[in-house]
Design goal:
heterodimer; A: mainly alpha; Helicase, Ruva Protein, domain 3; Cyclin A, domain 1; two-stranded parallel ribbon; two-stranded antiparallel sheet; B: alpha/beta; eight-stranded mixed sheet; globular
Chain lengths: 447, 212
Amino acid sequence: MHMGHNFAALCTNSTAYGWLNMWERLLFPFGWFSASVGAVNDMATHPGYYSELVEQSLGTSTLATDEIERDLHRSLPEHPAFQSDTGISALRRVLTAYAYRNPKIGYCQAMNILTSVLLLYAKEEEAFWLLVAVCERMLPDYFNRRIIGALVDQAVFEDLIREHLPQLVEHMTDLSFFSSVSLSWFLTLFISVLPIESAVNVVDCFFYDGIKAILQLGLAVLDYNMDALISCHDDAEAVTILNKFFDSVTNKDSPLPPTVQQAPVGNNDKASHFTVDISELIREAYEKYGNIRSEEVESSRKRNKLHVIQTLEDTTKQNVIRVVSQEVRFNASLLDELYNLFKRQHFLSCYWKIKSPALLHHDPSQAYLEQYQLGYHQFSLLFSLLEPWSFCTAKGPLSLWIFRLIDENQDGLVNFKEFSCSLDTLYCGSFTNKLKFLFKLHLPPGE
Amino acid sequence: MAYAYLFKYIIIGDTGVGKSCLLLQFTDKRFQPVHDLTIGVEFGARMITIDGKQIKLQIWDTAGQESFRSITRSYYRGAAGALLVYDITRRDTFNHLTTWLEDARQHSNSNMVIMLIGNKSDLESRREVKKEEGEAFAREHGLIFMETSAKTASNVEEAFINTAKEIYEKIQEGVFDINNEANGIKIGPQHPTTNSTLSGSQGGQHAGGGCC
């Protein structure tokens, strides 16, 4: 037997019983772990790796571990396995070890929910390798600091809605509603919206068919609620309809007692409502939308990815320009050009020098202004092209002094605001301000 | 239930500051120390009365982790009010306010009313951010400010209702174009009768209960 030795013991009797039956019910007789060939191989070729990681990572304190700690009690909180220290500790170990293994991802919310479900049905080490398979292969780029993979799949989902549910498109002028409401469907494989005993069936399909299973189920859910969705007046109403629907999903094959079910908020009027069985819903998803091919999904991902990243970059730019425009006299289009030059300079330095200070500090999750910064070398290259005295022969020391002056926190990097403010003074400042600026340049550092 | 106006709110702020708990306390009048993490968005609604008028608050609760910013952004559009929440026991959540505010100002309509909330005021012994600092930040950026406790319900009603009052006043002053739903304000399906009850209309609903 592959799964759940450790967890079966710490769950209540009824849960352990539920687990055994679940085991028979699973699509895969040996559970999720065996279904993921990659995870099996990874574990076999890395004996002892997980326990070493756990040893190295436990007790470390990073932003990721802080966030993990905060979310441990917000991961399937209704499930008895995560009401005891045993379950919480296992969750902590897996998430911390993962963040340690892959600092590029670190920890992203939703990983806690996935991991807690994995822990219910696999041994701890297996759950870890399954998490590796999910984060690094099955849901590529999902859990990085801008959840780009999930945003891309939302766009893919929108494309599929357009293709398969034209009636809905006719009614909804703005499809972005569906992409934002479906975010949790993708990031948590429906675990955060469906009752847990039904959600595990979805996870089964995911390990068998990958993201295609989630996409086709998403379409089936919308299709099932088509009439109600078409007649609703605003987003809130549509969310209500979908929440009610998810709450009404049952799993007749599951022996889990209702107390163990992770009751989503607001399931108060269940009795007055219809129910739908998860296996029926999944069957419908496969029958109606099973013809979606993985290659199509892949090419749609490629199509949408550039657009998603461009949109994020544009947002950053607009934000920075809005903030900086309040400080300088340059007009918006000039600032726009200046920003592009600045960002290009940042990337040029990344391209040519792996260890440039700007690259080492590059972190897309930082405040907008801090995302792109220049070290002295890149700064002087760009500044020498833009400064008003570009034909002056003795300008070398000037750019160094300017850099020193505007790098207020003295971390060796200047951001776009500091950069444009100095140019603004030199080009648009009053005579007195220019003079002041030049005077300050000549003060020795620290004065 | 007929309402004179519907106001859309958005709740924003770092992860773990108590956004969902504030919403739950306001809509259901209860505190749930252990609850699911918010992934993406959730919403709740409640009726309040201002100036004898029934006003429905439709409140969108967002995920706080940095990674989810791009999702949160799409909810600023069409919000009349925002509750910007920090945790008085965690200095970093206060330090991040500027970024949140930048995002809010960038993506919302310029008239959006923003209420700054220092939550967890019941944890006085663990306080890291002084009340005066919150007040100063609010003053500097033109926000309304309150310290609340979603646990003891202290000031929670006031926070949501005062925001609504401010929006209502702006409507009276003609600042909001109420015919443009992008402003987060909707006129009710029918005008309320003048003798409608002023109290006893505080029925709450949370994330999908009841109809809209």
